[in-house]
Amino acid sequence: MTEVNSMETITTSSKLLCVLLFTGILLQYAGRSSISVVLVELQKPPGNNTLTNVSKSQVQYSQFQAGVILSSVYIGMLPSSLIGGYLAYRFSAIRVFLASIGISSIVHGGGAVMFDDFETAVTQRILAGMAEGLSEPATFGVLNQYLSPEQSARVSPFIFAGGLGITCAAVSVVFAVAGMAKKRDALDRNKGDIKKMKSIPVFRIFTSTAVWASILLQAAPYFWDPSILPLYFSQSFGTKTELVGVLAGIPILIFGVLEPLFALVENTLCKHVSTTAARKSMAVIACLCVSGCLFMAAFTSNPVVAACFIATAYGSHAARAAVGDANIFDIAPRYASVISGICRAICRVVGLTFPLLVTAITKNKSSQEWSRVVLIKACVLAATALFFGAFGSGEEQPWAVEVPQGQSGGTQPGSRKDHKVDDENRPLFKK
């Protein structure tokens, strides 16, 4: 059994699949976050615009319009996250993922033209959100299909640390076709198990405190999306546009580098203590560290000091993310894509409303107003630490172990041990 759980049992094709998942999510995030730096420049009067080859009809976006553009991406993500979770659960998760990456690439390609006008800019962000919202639930579905729950929990923080567009999708299609052709028999053997999971325990999912603790852990960062960082440094400290992208990019870079490292630390910790103890300890400490750093950043007037605290906060965020990305596979691996869709939908609601709240608080674009924004974020992370510490779990929930048996209404109890044995027949998985 130890051999089955070992990371060495993951085949080369499965590792390649994880790399492609990471690349797709990374490029989607890059397309979304780059808009925030552009908005800093587009808020300036056209005469003072430092960009070259800009049309004279270029509008000057107000603070409210900038907030609407930043939040509008979540208008598209909100329905597509729920739809993506359902589609990835009932159909081929990898096809849903490939469609998301391909459509996102096309939509982002038209962004340069559509940002010349406020209405078309909002339209572009909504379309981008609709395409991007499918990818994360589909990723959970792909991992659940090709890897065991324990392996999925280990590799998911590495994949989501990325937070080649059409090229990535095309390569993935070639890889998927080749892999599926070689392992068609294994997929056919798994179809029986997939058919048994058509009934979703919606009531138990929504009444589970462990699920809500996991959702809150992943939704908390959306109370201050990284896309707000350029506006924060520009308006709170008067930072030049040339430095805004650097100051806003360093924390995200630190986050992306540290999340896989924290995932390794967490995997090692799980070998010495229970999964619940490992998840709770890392998540609570991480959230409290983020909260403390943000409290310090809220009361400084030095941009360098603020940047250091923000960077440290995002470094601690990486530990929280390592727990959040793996925790769904701990508590309900069978319904990982469904819960991920629900979680992402709630995250989109927060991501949709908070930029608008920020623009309402920062009407004068003063450092005092931005300090209030940072304090709100700090309080949310402190509350998240308390809630996850009280209700978080690292054990598979009893309702997630039951496997529906068609229309008879009966259930057959299972266990994580049973899952490990069944996983030997999964495609792209080495015995």
Beta-strand percent range: under 5%
**What's the average pLDDT?**
77
Number of helices: 20
Overall outline: globular
Extended strand count: 2
* Biggest β-sheet description: 2 strands, antiparallel
What does this structure look like?
With 431 residues, the protein is mainly α. 74% of the residues lie in helices and 1% in strands. It has helices at residues 2-5, 12-42, 63-90, 93-109, 111-114, 118-132, 135-146, 149-159, 166-182, 184-195, 202-206, 209-219, 229-237, 241-270, 275-298, 303-331, 336-361, 367-391, 398-401, 416-422; strands at residues 403-404, 411-412. The chain is globular and about 60 Å long.
Using brief descriptors, characterize the structure shown.
disordered N terminus, 1% strand, disordered C terminus, 20 helices, mainly alpha, two-stranded antiparallel sheet, 431 residues, globular, single chain
Task: Give me the secondary-structure topology.
Elements: H1 2-5, H2 12-42, H3 63-90, H4 93-109, H5 111-114, H6 118-132, H7 135-146, H8 149-159, H9 166-182, H10 184-195, H11 202-206, H12 209-219, H13 229-237, H14 241-270, H15 275-298, H16 303-331, H17 336-361, H18 367-391, H19 398-401, E1 403-404, E2 411-412, H20 416-422
Antiparallel strand pairs: 1-2
